[in-house]
Amino acid sequence: MLLFGKESDERHRALMKYEAERLSALATDLGEIAKRETLASSDALFPNEAPVLEFWSIGYRRVPCLAGLSSGHPVLYGDQREIITSDLVAFSEVLGWARTRSRWYRLGQRELTRSSN
To answer: Does residue 8 have a pLDDT over 80?
Structure first.
């Protein structure tokens, strides 16, 4: 979320540009999904270089998101790093992909369900 004050300095302009680019990329991806009659996990729309999220589950802040162990993330470096994603926008467990507000994720193994016994 961007907060605006009376003045717009260089930092605020840079943040607005960054958010506009993120939202533009999201809108482009959603438009591409909408154009297709069917989707497959091998669809070129889903990038091979997207980070892998293992032992994932759908989490909730005030919006749906994913939580899991990320590998190959371009900003949150490390293998099997525990993360919570930005807002979950598009999701297909069957096809093995998710689109958050920030980026695509390839879905690996889902979190194991815990027994209450």
So the answer is: no
